[in-house]
Amino acid sequence: MADVTLPAKFRVATASLAGCFGCHMSFLDIDERLFDLVKHVEFDRSPLTDIKHVGKCDIGLIEGGVCNTENVHVLREFRHNCRILVAVGACAINGGLPAQRNHLPLEGVLQEVYQTSPGLAAGLIPDDPELPLPLDKVHPLHEVVHVDYVIPGCPPSADAIWSVLGDLIAGREPALAQRLIHFD
Q1: What percent of the chain has pLDDT over 90?
Q2: How far is CA 18 from CA 32, 72, 105, in A?
Q3: What Cα–Cα distance (Å) separates residue 66 from each residue in 69, 119, 130, 181, 182?
Q4: 6 pLDDT exceeds 80?
Q5: Strand pairing report for 57-63 and 82-88
């Protein structure tokens, strides 16, 4: 990391794209350390604030893969507003479980879900203009925007997230210990 003047309080934002929200749950598993964290950070967009659009931030943590046009929009807005972007978890890093559909044609997936399997759609594939258009495949974040750091895991542990945040806030290059990387 280049020499930078550290701000009095870092602005941190979080977002979730296509995934299970497990990485945010791990973030919340920081538990009482959240009280220490708020001494050094101010939260922008996150489930803790219910802010929907990200403002200018120092650090952005984002989980989930990119599976539709809304995900692309949110990710690009997030990247534009975050000085440092951290991809959190397997879905953000390599597409994770949502990318399991990548070996199937999208049309076939939609037909199977809405026209073949029993469900509530009455055999119709939704095409409401309010629904984001699905992409042909699920993409990891780095295929759409530049990612500065990754926190691997499915989900990463609270300790792994804490370690990377601590390093970034201290102005250090994140050094995630191997013992903190796991896939539960």
Answers
A1: 65
A2: 28, 11, 18
A3: 8, 25, 18, 23, 23
A4: no
A5: parallel
More confident call, 37 vs 62: 62
Q: Number of structural domains, the chain?
A: 1
Residue 61's domain comprises 10-101+137-180
C-alpha 172, offset from chain centre: 22
Helices and strands (DSSP H and E) totals, the chain: 6, 7
pLDDT digits (tens, 9 = 90+) for 143-179: 999 999 999 999 999 999 999 999 999 999 999 888 8
Q: What is the mean pLDDT of the segment spanning 20-33?
A: 92
- What tokens were used for 7? 């701000």
Is residue 87 helix, strand or coil? strand
Q: What is the CATH number of the domain that holds 94?
A: 3.40.50.700
Edge-to-edge strand list for the sheet holding 57-63: 41-43, 10-16, 57-63, 82-88, 149-151
